[in-house]
Amino acid sequence: MVQGVEFDFVVKDSKTALEQYKSIFDVEVVEKTNFKVGNNEAVFTIYGTRFHMLDENPEYQLFAPKEGQAQSFWFNVTVPDIQETYDKAMAANATEIQPVTRMEEMGISNAMFLDSFGYVWMLHEVHREVSFEERVDILSKDFE
Question: Which residues contact 140 (CB under 8 A, 6 or more apart)?
Answer without folding.
Answer: none
